Amino acid sequence: MKAGSWATMVRQLAAGGKLERARGAAAGAEQLSNEQASSGQIGRQAESLKAWLQGISRMDMTWVTDRIAVGGGIWRAENMAAVARAGVTHIIDMQIEFDDTALAEPHGIEVLWNPIDDDFQPKPPAILQRGVDFATEALDQDGTRVFIHCAAGVHRAPMMTLAVLCSMGWAQEAAKELIMKRRPVVDFADVYVRSVERFLDQQVRAGK
What we know:
Helix content is 54%, strand content 12%.
């Protein structure tokens, strides 16, 4: 079975609350990752799934700045409660697998569900613009904190975080270094970095 198939199966089980079955399926994913870790995109997908599995029973969240965090999926009410206790007021949910809105409502946390697939394909500037606009509006308010996440916090959420930081004035390389220093599991796939670069170029042309 390919890494993408394992990812789909395990995430569906977890989203349905079947965590023990998800962990059992994860054993196959881990074996796949160990066997294919050096085989390009497949190995990267397997490694991403392993990182996501590590956070399946706990909240995986890394603070990049004092007001912006990046991490993996929330999935459960207990994890959302942990996010709220950390002072998060706004969430950018980049995962196509799960919409956080219902879990966030009891805590008064605002959610932007901005779903994209982790398919190593170029991402449209509109997706990044939507996230940047949401983060900018949130951070303009006093006392707010933003959590940007996907399923594993390895590809999609770091891409969105990079776009947010660069839109705030960070140089691209400095922003990448900060994100990777704070969260070493991050993997900036070239295609996602180029997507951010195209978005930033569009911003410059628009005079933003």
